[in-house]
Amino acid sequence: MNASHDYQRVYVWQLPVRLFHQINALCITVLCVTGWLISHPPGFLNAGEASSGYWFGTNRFIHFAAGYVLLANFLVRIYWSFVGNKYSNWRNFLPLTMAQIRQCRDVLLVDILQVRSKPVHALGHNAVAYFTYAGTGLLTVFQIVSGFALYAPTSRAWFPRLFTWVTPLFGSEQNLRLFHYDAMWLFILFVVVHVYLVVYHDYVEGHGVLSSIIGGWKFMEKRTVAAPDATGISGLPARKAPAVPGTKTHPTRP
Amino acid sequence: MRPRRYFTRARPQKMPLELETLPKEETIYDQIIARGVSRREFLSFCAWMGACIGVQASGIAQVIQALETKKRIPVIWLHFQECTCCSESFLRSSHPIVADILLDKISLDYTETLMAASGHQAEQSLQDTMAKYKGEYLLCIEGSVPLAEDGVYCCIGGKTAKGIAEEVAEHAKAIIAWGNCACSGCVQAAKPNPTQAMPIKKIIAGKPIINVQGCPPIAEVMAGVLVHLLTFDTIPELDNLGRPKAFYSRRVHDTCYRRPNYDAGLFVESFDDENARKGYCLYKVGCKGPTTYNSCGTIRWNGGVSFPIQSGHPCIGCSESNFWDNGPFYQRLPSFPGFGIEATADTVGVAALGVAAAGVAAHAVMTNVRKRHEIGEQPGENAEKADAADAASRGNNPNS
Prior knowledge:
The complex is a heterodimer.
Chain A: E1 7-11, H1 15-39, H2 55-83, H3 98-112, H4 127-151, H5 158-161, H6 166-169, H7 173-205, H8 209-215, E2 217-221, H9 222-226, H10 228-231
Antiparallel strand pairs in A: 1-2
Chain B: H1 2-10, H2 28-34, H3 39-53, H4 60-69, E1 75-79, H5 85-91, H6 96-107, E2 108-111, H7 119-132, E3 138-142, E4 145-146, E5 155-156, E6 159-160, H8 161-170, E7 174-178, H9 179-184, E8 197-198, E9 209-212, H10 219-232, H11 245-248, H12 259-263, H13 274-278, H14 345-370, H15 379-394
Parallel strand pairs in B: 1-2, 1-3, 3-7, 7-9
Antiparallel strand pairs in B: 4-8, 5-6
Helix pairs in contact in B: 1-6, 3-4, 3-10, 4-10, 5-10, 6-10
């Protein structure tokens, strides 16, 4: 074993990114559970008088409140994609360069189909993962827009009223409700695949990707960190990196 | 007993031949009083209608003054693809003046259902009214207009519904579309809509159209819209579907007397269970109240006697566009588009979840087999070995 095999700590996920992830995960969980209950309220036979309980109203309140938190959190993340480090930059999320497209192909061959064995060097996410997160971002936008459109008729606040134009696009509130509900299933499917793939990468590559979302550090081989295609924005040529603020690659916490 | 009186006394006035002899200068109030209604009854009607259309107490005088000073509005009432339930609903209005005010005082100059004239006489009276009150008459339309096969599915007097609607609408002051047929096509416009039934708003452009939704609309709502037109001489404030906000701005769900059960999570599970007897919320048996805008919860039906939910039946959302296509009446969410009728979003979702879980499990197995040499080794070794393996497989030098 020579020196190039040594690990190096790389600070990948800054605090706002990690906070975004935890809050987002919590919101999605709460929204899915409360949303499921709104759609399929459990039946309590012979449960007495209406004056004796308010759990369904409370459940809906939690759903609406979590929706606001999800939105605020999402906006912070968008802001951070312009001012954060290179791993959180918005450019990563769209595979527009040849390098990113090549990496997409490599990831499919190495990790999904497993017909090639040379690992893909990516300090942040790989290009496929970034693109997937762009998709979940779009899904989040749809849930926020459709959710506030459904919420608007019951609210006098100015913010939900901004979304009243959405419902006519879907024909009726009933249809919009169906789309809002179906999108929840996409989140559930995403969580299954997302959690599996993180465990997969941690298990196969040993870079500590699972713990990186807690502490922000990944453990990479020194030669990977030093490789020119790995020091720039994931999948982007290294020369583009300085254009992004705060992109100096520090082996230690900046 | 009042509606009965209408039939016995008002019908002769519908005779188009008598149209010329109607006292033109009399105000609506004069005519109401002449019909034996007391001033007290008249005032209570004005207060009641004012409350219905949403004017404040000080505005009631405006309603009274309008009815006292204004003359009749000429009305042409057309019937196309429909069941006439809107007219039926109106006739069953709880307040006698409602029937009187429209059918006598506002004066129906042409309506296929109630006019005594028939055939050429009827068509003549339509032409006469249009010529005489050009630009002044109010056009009320019940029913949708079919466009398929050049509109042959609905013809009156040899003309298609589309032709009639366009001709009469041209010089109308305003248009009221009564009921779901005229507002959004109702059952005949449900998929696959074989006659291409269209609501009035898609046939006529450039005229103010008031959509008075419902299948049928509540009689008091219909009367309220007319009183608003009479009183203020303006189109009432409309929502984004063209419905008067005074009656269609609140959800049935928010005005429902069973709402506390919803908030408490007390639901009817099936129509014959104990919860149904207790009057719990009908949300789980498909009530469309949460997505339906109407006054059923406040004005109610048949003089405030009841409304569907009060009678134990879920709201079917009849004042919403395409309510026949918005999923089964007794199911909360519509079926998943593009799948069979029984495929709800949950069926599809669980199937997709199963596929995802199976894919993940298969991939995990494959990983342990194909990547067994890499797992648990130093990552650097992996990379070097992999470099060599890939290079060997391509016949390249690993250092190049």
